[in-house]
Amino acid sequence: SMAPVQTHVPEECKRCCFIDRHRLLPSSAGWTPNWSVYLQDCPINHYIPIYLIVAGVFGLVLGVVTSCLPSNPEGEEVAPPTLLTRCCQFVYRLISLFLFCWFITGNVWIYSIYQPDYNKNTTNIDHYCDKTLYLFAFWTTNLVYIILGLSLVCGCCTAFFTCVLGCKIINDVETPS
């Protein structure tokens, strides 16, 4: 008879370290409250609640997929990727690409109707969008841009100071005192 096939599950997939591995989970969880309650509450663009639901769900899935990606502590040798690791990397890249495209699409839907009518009692409800729904979508989108901008500024400052300090160290080594 055949011996049972033993599969190796990487240690990274066995543990749940929500601080290091699931940075997306808290932010994505905010996108996934029951936005289906608002599905009919934005006639000016009915895709906005759908955008929030899909972004939240895929953000959570991305966080789970991230937990299966191996992390090697500094100084440790990098092991060759397993089939599971390759599959997780592929799914991670695919979902990331989808979320990037979905984010661009959501930008169009959100910013194209700025500022909707928050008063549902008007005679023309075609321009109505629930205030909570719209402002959540609007400000979370703005927050992404704020974080990207701050990251860019910090990255540029880091690169500048690294270059300046690197040039100073090289000059100090080349010119004896």
TrEMBL record:
<dbReference type="InterPro" id="IPR040350">
    <property type="entry name" value="TMEM272"/>
</dbReference>
<keyword id="KW-0812">Transmembrane</keyword>
<keyword id="KW-0472">Membrane</keyword>
<feature type="transmembrane region" description="Helical">
    <location>
        <begin position="48"/>
        <end position="69"/>
    </location>
</feature>
<protein>
    <submittedName>
        <fullName>Uncharacterized protein</fullName>
    </submittedName>
</protein>
<keyword id="KW-1133">Transmembrane helix</keyword>
<feature type="transmembrane region" description="Helical">
    <location>
        <begin position="143"/>
        <end position="167"/>
    </location>
</feature>
<feature type="transmembrane region" description="Helical">
    <location>
        <begin position="90"/>
        <end position="114"/>
    </location>
</feature>
